[in-house]
Amino acid sequence: MIESPKGVFEVLSRNDLYRIHTATLEVLEGVGVRVEEENALKLLDESGADVNYGDKVAKIPQHLVDEAVRSSSRTVLFAGRDKKYDLRLEGLRVHFGTGEGATSVLDHDTGSVRPSTKMDIANVARLADGLPNIDFVMPVFTAQEVPQQALPLHDLHAVLKNTEKPVMVVDFGLDATHLIKMASVVVGGDEKLRERPILGMYSEPTPPLTHGRNHTRNLMTFAKWKLPIAYITAPASCSTAPATMAGAIVQSNAETLSGNVIAQFTSKGAKYIYGACTSSFDPRTGVFPYGAPEWMLTNLAMAQLGRYYGFPTWSTGGCSDSKVLDGQATLEAALSLFVAAQSGANLIHDAGSFLNFGLTGCLDLITICDEIVSMITYVLNGIEITDETLAIDIIGKVGPRGHYLSQAHTLKFFKKEHWFPTLLDRKTRDAWVKNGSKDLLQRARKKTSEILETHVPTPLPSDIEKELDHILAEAQKNILHGKT
User: What is the rounded average pLDDT for all residues in the chain?
Assistant: First the structure.
């Protein structure tokens, strides 16, 4: 179980939180949400919501929201195939992982952009498995050479074989039971999966205020299985959410809280993870920017709201709108990671995963962000104050005009108290030139190559690997023939 650093930065006062909460309740009860999954709509009706079946709109009263919040798990175990990678999601404990959804890759070897493949997914999972500061793994890419109806199966198949860390997948609308079956085989059966949930799902409502049929079905499936489900809305202010940040947050909160109502009334104690990917719409370019400060600000607010309700929380950081791995990419990645970490969100995804608004993945940016996360973690861990660290005796022993280089106290604490880079350069200029004058990108590329060449996660037992392959083949066959 990883003991994690804690974020501390808050942007909303207690009164702000209350006003957002009451405004959200007013939206849910007065405006309602559209629910396109019939079983979910019926569930809300039977639970006490005011349901219009013709419009598929459910108006949700406060007592249902309150009951769902009370029923939610305050702590969620997100397990690794190896127990040493287990994560406990609660409070201000911060963990970092990759994302999923890129359709192209900035090729590590050639520097050119090409369609992403299943091999890219395997490589990125192995890289993330070998990087010490990446806590959970998402596939980053989508395999463009496989049948697109079965794409999520191939993405998960590649990741499960190449990491021992917890795995999160994106809900692309495919029946989630196929994905659960794959994870169940890997961990040792259905009951074992419930005991040790190595699989989580990231799913989204459709802003404004709509719960789509397939994603709601999968939300309910993960709720029944008691598997971690991050049901994260992603509206764009000025487009699919109000132009004001406060209004966008109220709408996001309404979408996320109503998702929790569906989850908890499906199965009390569902492992629901709260959050939002609320950003802005840039009318000059027509894009949803990944490096926008609006996104960083709403990340802070939504994490604080999640703790207000007592949920485990989700956030985003480490990606960029830049088309290449350059100064803009590292600036946006570093700043967004630091802000998300300071929010205290429990799962921060997209670390190093994306360039070009989430369309292009980059392995070397993940390697760079691993170093950034290491620096952030050092800051979040704070300063230890004890009699020994206050060092009054040693200050007196050295006295004015002395030095601490030869002191046993220095030998004891210099590694414990200080952060040392593995990727960033601190050499003198002469030493840097002597070592080839390599810039950050060249050093990152070398480190990425070394991990891909040497790191091998513990392989699945051969019988489990064969069964996993069989499940993939059968599920794809059924999907392509329209049987599911």
Answer: 95
